[in-house]
Amino acid sequence: MRYTKEDDARFQKCLCELAAHPDVQILKHIPQHRGSTTFAHSVSVANCAYHLAKKSHLKVEIQSLVCGAMLHDFYLYDTETMPYSDYRHSLIHPKLALQNAEKRFKLNARERNIILSHMWPIPCSPLPRCKEAWLVSIADKMCAWKEMHK
Ligand SMILES: [Fe+2]
Ligand SMILES: [Fe+2]
After folding, report:
1. Distance between CA atoms of 31 and 134, rounded to whole angstroms?
2. What is the pLDDT of residues 67-78, one digit of tens each?
3. Which of 11, 137, 131 is nearest to 60 (CA)?
4. Element (H, E) at 32
5. For residue 26, what is the DSSP state?
6. pLDDT value at position 150?
7. Alpha-carbon distance 24 to 14, whole Å?
8. What is the whole-number distance in angstroms between the Cα of residue 144 and the centre of ligand 2?
9. Distance between CA atoms of residues 144 and 142, nearest Å
10. Whose atoms come closest to the Cα of 46: which ligand?
11. Which label site among 19, 56, 123, 134 has the fewest CB atoms less than 10 Å from its CB?
12. How many angstroms separate the CA atoms of 64 and 142, rounded?
């Protein structure tokens, strides 16, 4: 499917609205990947996932793609001072992100799967079960790699 200007406008509107939400603004205070913040990382993942959807001509639920991308790392702690090892963090943070997100936002099944499966294929990670979850999981790895190598 071909994306239209209306699709782009809908993506931007969803992204701006969620990014401006006070609970999402908290992510500006959570450091991530060498001098970045979880807010900046999540916006990059949303943009990258939408870009991949357009390039692959995959029709996606734009609202869910944005919501899952913006909340996939909603674990709300600093990994520099966390009480977990890096390995344990990589295993548990999708579940913690989902728990935190569900206290503040009403999520659908697609959005829950995007958050829970974004670390696939690490051990015990659920499988991405929709196009949006695959796109966010791929975009997350691309953005994390870029952030760690800049
Ligand atoms: Fe993550
Ligand atoms: Fe991430």
Report:
1. 25
2. 999 999 999 999
3. 131
4. strand 31-32
5. G
6. 81
7. 13
8. 7
9. 6
10. 2
11. 123
12. 20
Per DSSP, helices labelled H in the chain are 5-20, 22-25, 38-55, 62-71, 86-104, 109-117, 131-148
What spacing in Å lies between the alpha carbon of 10 and ligand 2's midpoint?
23
All domains in the chain, ordered by first residue = 5-148 (1.10.3210)
143 CA → ligand 2 middle, Å = 8
Tell how far the Cα of 73 is from the centroid of ligand 2, in angstroms: 5
User: Any idea which ligand is nearest the CA of 42?
Assistant: 2
pLDDT bucket at 1, cuts 50 / 70 / 90: confident
pTM beyond 0.90: yes
How many A from CA of 5 to the centre of ligand 2?
Answer: 27
Tokens, residue 96: 């913690």
The Å distance, Cα 94 to ligand 1 centre, comes to 6
pLDDT tens digits along 34-63: 789 999 999 999 999 999 999 999 999 999
The ligand with the least distance to the CA atom of 38 is 2
